[in-house]
Design a protein that fits this description.
Strand order of the largest sheet: 8-9-11-10-14-18-15-16
Number of strands: 20
Structural class: alpha/beta
Low-confidence stretches: none
Number of helices: 16
Radius of gyration: 24 Å
Helix content: 25-40%
Largest sheet: 8 strands, mixed
């Protein structure tokens, strides 16, 4: 993990591999953002002109590297685009700072230390820059020989250079190391980024190394480290408890399913949140096998469980004054002679029966059992998170997750939380007329309904298993959970950790008395 410090030192006198400055689009070319006055002065006040000559515009995410003048101890200046002009009060949007810091951190991979002279007006800005830098510096290299060599002190210099280890240290200039608010912002960013990056690691881990049992073991280790109570139900306990949905999905795999319960409790809590995550460690589609071209990234089908896991641990590390219970519904969906078949009927934990018309609609089956179990504790609200439907990707694209709920105010509260932390999300309806499409002549309900509006149909299915009178929301993160395109902002290629920050922000709002 990249080290993080606050510094009151001037940019001109700080020893580092690079100085990062912000640039915005101006009417007559790029304009150097405040926070980098000393750097601009070292260029005789002409840094903006130099950048324009090099083709820079100040556009969001744009990176321009140039040699530092003699007045700086760092040999390199990296200018990163913030996009448009600041707000009327001169401050910059937190998300713009977060993204710029992420872009800069990724561009400086292989460097030992960078000083970030981005705009800082308050502790919130420091938190955004810290969070963006820590998330942007992330790389998943556990399986790459070049990365291992880069970390090996005895490896040849060329090997280290090719490995491009993440930026080792970030010093945020303009911070106040002794100020409680600034220190708290950095501590929050560290805890949140470490847990989100752990979620990314889990999502990126190949399915031959991450199955329900090993995922549960990771959760157990983290729970022990952070004082979280943990309970793991193995296949025997699931059978005894009647968890037909989880067992049905895992029936075809050599790796048995698990249901993990993580409980964080605060002595000052007045509210209780339950987070439920879909954890299909690999989804082949089962007997309803996915075609080639649709199964290569299905190691990411446990991203919902990874998000819930990360959010609970982050809440514990931050000492939030709210009780948070996480439920990880873990299974591997594989075809075999013992696998659930299309046409089979499963008796769920709630007692309802489900006719399985498509074994590739398996996420809703494991979630249904976990939601029903979570409902027994009558939390103030349940939020489930899942890479559930391709239909949601068609509706909202690859960067936005959908929010459905049985309470409009709660759906709005989650949307606000997502906006506050910079996660694109959009409220979606639960049209009652789509429920009829899941009627079954054999069972209480089928796991498939109308094709049009498939993401909404999945939400309606899950709603059937929510305890009476309990506020509930469903986040379909199928689009943003796994980035198959190039990195952008602080988002890497591969597992993204989608919804972690929204869940943590929701917990913070709830602790403050604003559940929605």
């Amino acid at each position: 993990m990249t080290a993080l410090t606050l510094s009151t030192a001037a940019a001109t006198g700080l020893r580092a591999d690079a100085i990062v400055v912000g640039v915005v689009k101006g009417d007559k070319g790029p304009v150097v953002a405040h926070g980098a006055e000393a750097v601009d002065k070292a260029y005789d006040g002409k840094l903006g002109s130099v950048l324009e000559t090099l083709g820079a515009s100040g556009g969001e995410g744009e990176v321009t590297k140039l040699p530092a003048p003699s007045g700086l101890k760092a040999p390199l200046v990296l200018a990163v685009g913030l996009g448009g002009e600041p707000e009327k009060d001169g401050a910059y949007d937190s998300e713009a700072l977060r993204r710029a810091a992420g872009v800069a951190a990724r561009a400086l991979a292989g460097s030992k230390k960078a000083a970030f002279a981005l705009p800082v007006d308050d502790a919130e800005d420091v938190g955004a820059i810290a969070e963006g830098a820590l998330l942007g510096a992330y790389s998943f290299d556990a399986y790459k020989e070049s990365a291992r060599e880069a970390k090996d002190a005895k490896a040849p210099k060329d090997a280290k250079k090719n490995g491009r280890a993440p930026l080792a240290e970030v010093a945020i200039l303009g911070g106040k190391p002794r100020d409680k608010a600034y220190k708290a912002a950095v501590e929050r960013a560290l805890a949140l980024a470490e847990e989100l990056n752990r979620a990314r690691d889990l999502i990126n881990t190949p399915p031959n190394d991450l199955n329900p049992e090993s995922f549960a073991a990771v959760a157990q280790a983290a729970a022990k480290e952070h004082g979280i109570k943990v309970q793991v139900l193995d296949e025997k306990a699931l059978e005894k408890g009647g968890y037909g949905g989880i067992l049905g999905v895992g029936a075809g795999s050599a790796s048995a399913p698990r249901l993990v319960k993580l409980s964080y409790k605060s002595s000052k809590a007045k509210k209780h949140l339950a987070f439920v995550g879909k954890g299909i460690t690999y989804d082949s589609g089962g007997i309803s096998l996915k075609p080639a071209g649709h199964n290569e990234t299905m190691k990411c089908d446990m991203a919902g469980a990874a998000a819930v896991f990360a959010a609970v641990v982050a809440a514990a590390r931050l000492g939030l004054e709210v009780n948070v219970t996480g439920w990880l519904a873990l299974a591997e969906n594989m075809p075999s002679g013992s696998a659930t078949r299309p046409g089979d009927v499963l008796r769920m934990y709630s007692g309802k029966t489900v006719e399985v018309l498509n074994t590739d609609a398996e996420g809703r089956l494991v979630l249904a059992d976990a939601i029903a179990k979570a409902s027994e504790e009558t939390p103030d609200a349940i939020v489930d998170v899942a890479t559930l439907t391709g239909a949601m990707m068609l509706a909202l694209g690859a960067r936005t997750f959908g929010i459905m709920a049985n309470d409009d105010a709660f759906r709005g509260s989650i949307h606000e939380a997502a906006e506050e932390v910079g996660e694109p999300a959009w409220p979606m309806p639960l049209p009652a007329d789509l429920r009829k499409g899941m009627d079954s002549s054999t069972a209480d309900i089928a796991n498939m309904g109308e094709r049009m509006g498939g993401g909404l149909v999945a939400g309606l299915f899950l709603q059937e298993f929510v305890g009476e009178g309990i506020t509930w929301a469903h986040l379909d993160i199928a689009g943003p959970a796994f980035n198959e395109s190039a990195p952008f902002g602080y988002t890497p290629k591969g597992g993204t950790g989608s919804a972690v920050r929204t869940l943590v922000r929701l917990a913070e709002r709830t602790a403050a008395g604003d559940l929605g």
